[in-house]
């Protein structure tokens, strides 16, 4: 985003506007944290701001300040369409292709609102008038902090904004473990704590939410864990029947794939989750080092993301999807540095 872009956006925000803020479908901590952080900033500047999420999201994200104001497109389509049609500006956060917002895509495309993208994923589509795209950033929440800084309004940061932005940075960096966490990231986190983010309580709110059934589901996932040692790869499967057995709720499998990646000598991990509701296999991919799961997902599983974290899907059944996954591993033998 150039200085001219910032100047233009400052001019747009100089007077109150009708603004819609949108995260991606199945939003995670960074998506909800960044939209809420921006929402509180815009409300503080007297804009008529509203967040429209494409669909429902996990309960462990529902404690953040302002969360109860988020509209859900899947439940409130007509009302949300009216908001999109009346918007002066639309901010799209934590995604860079309108296909990531599901059934909202048509209404957002049709809206005459000026669109502003803030995102850190690779290979953005060209749909926004203003694009703040930076794949080196730890999270979209870090980018929202930088965006507010570029607008010259860091003094406006309060405990609500700080709490939301801290949450997204913490979740998208794996509690600051991932390589995308930089010294600048830590400096920003320090400022957020100074502004009122209670880091200990935020970690508790996000991480201390395990139900007995979720822990049983994790046990089943670990039982299903398989290793392909010649390709330094591990993967987990969960069928719809297994999800039903443990009363699966949205968000229950969050982080499961990291258990596969944590195995000694493993640098490529995946989880395959059957979804009868969507008639697909949902896929999460993780890696260590410079092995790009973004490239794997884009090439084979209709998805994408970051070098070390990506998502995708398969229209095959679960067994066929696993067969496909194993069949493509030889293509990456050199990159996986197989022993």
Question: What order do the helices and strands come in, and which of them pair?
Answer:
Layout lengths: L2 H10 L5 E5 L6 H16 L3 E6 L17 E2 L4 H10 L2 E5 L11 H6 L3 E6 L10 E4 L6 H11 L8 H14 L10 H12 L4 H9 L4 H12 L2 E3 L4 E6 L1 H6 L10 H6 L6 E8 L4 E8 L5 H8 L3 E2 L3 E6 L3 H11 L11
Parallel strand pairs: 1-2, 1-4, 2-3, 4-5, 5-6, 8-9
Antiparallel strand pairs: 7-8, 9-10, 10-12, 11-12
Helix pairs in contact: 2-5, 2-6, 5-6, 6-7, 6-8
Pick out its properties.
alpha/beta, 39% helix, 6-stranded mixed beta sheet, 13 helices, inorganic pyrophosphatase (n-terminal core), 339 residues
What spatial order of strands do you see in the largest sheet?
Answer: 3-2-1-4-5-6
Distance between the termini: 43 Å
The tally of structural domains comes to: 2
Structural class category: alpha/beta
Beta-strand percentage range: 15-25%
What is the CATH top level name of the largest domain?
Alpha Beta
CATH fold descriptor of the largest domain: inorganic pyrophosphatase (n-terminal core)
| Largest sheet report | 6 strands, parallel
Indicate the CATH architecture of the largest domain. Alpha-Beta Complex
Order of helices and strands: HEHEEHEHEEHHHHHEEHHEEHEEH
- Write out the CATH superfamily name of the largest domain: inorganic pyrophosphatase (n-terminal core)
The helix content is 25-40%
The low-confidence runs, each spanning 5 or more residues with pLDDT under 50, are none
Mean pLDDT: 95
